[in-house]
Amino acid sequence: MSGAVNDQRTILITGANGQVGFELARTMQGLGRVVALHRKALDLADLDAIRTVLRSLRPAIVVNAAAYTAVDQAESDRDAAFRLNCDAPAVLAQECAKLGALLIHYSTDYVFDGAKQDGAYVESDPTDPKNVYGASKLAGERAIAAAQGTHLIFRTSWVYGARGKNFVRTMLRLGAEREELRVVADQIGAPTWSNTIATSTAHVVASGLRAGQADYWERNSGIYHLTAAGEASWYDLARAVFEMAMGANAPRVVPIEAREYPTPARRPQNSRMSNEALAERFGIRQPDWRVALALCLADCDVSSTPRV
């Protein structure tokens, strides 16, 4: 079932303690009655709990920021990854369709194999995930579409923030401990600040509310890529973090190939994704990844991080 967003305009955010969920609980203020639930309040592994909460709250918009994101661990924990990344979004989508609510969900560059040679991926490119995490997220995308409700799926990449476990925070910690770090230089993507994702999501929601058209979300439902502008390797990102945060105290960063740093899960070599569809449909242009990184580091207050 699809239809207009209901009049209550309650906005339910799942995964409120996560990198993106934490930011969403702030950027969504003013757009409706925000109900931000962390895992203890709503564990998405409990499918019946999802049904109970949505039927009780009857939200107009659900923003699902909860996910299984332990990419390497997913290789040996397939059931848990699919439970959170496929089964839970499927139930959310089914319940939203019954309510006539909009579901916003986040996916990943890992739905692609990374073998594209001629630039950034667009939404219509064939998917072919090479790890369990990517497969579980792709299954979630398909389950949401199958529910036939109004939905927006934002594929993002290389997410980091001032909270939680992420590459930027790991580099800051290791950079304060070591004089040299070896970082992969042959995987390319767009490092994307969690606040950029949340702010863009809020802009999209605001545009729909301003439009005031009953079929707005139905007409605009689908998959969109949402990443920072520009591109970088993990090596480039590490160097930028140290230059901005540590200056002369920065460790040496040595570029290596991915094969020199084997991991249980394969990563795409090319994780670049085009944001043009998002820009054309909603008028949103993303900041360059370096600009966003500087803002995030200012939030972290690490401009004078010493090495111990």
UniProtKB/TrEMBL annotation:
Family: Belongs to the dTDP-4-dehydrorhamnose reductase family.
Cofactor-binding details, from the entry: Binds 1 Mg(2+) ion per monomer.
Pathway(s) of this molecule: Carbohydrate biosynthesis; dTDP-L-rhamnose biosynthesis
BP-aspect Gene Ontology terms: dTDP-rhamnose biosynthetic process
Molecular function as annotated in GO: dTDP-4-dehydrorhamnose reductase activity
Reactions the enzyme catalyzes: dTDP-beta-L-rhamnose + NADP(+) = dTDP-4-dehydro-beta-L-rhamnose + NADPH + H(+)
Protein name: dTDP-4-dehydrorhamnose reductase
GO terms for cellular component: cytosol
High-level lineage: Bacteria, Pseudomonadati, Pseudomonadota, Betaproteobacteria, Burkholderiales
The organism of origin for this protein: Caballeronia calidae
The keyword Oxidoreductase appears for this protein: yes
Domain of life where this protein originates: Bacteria
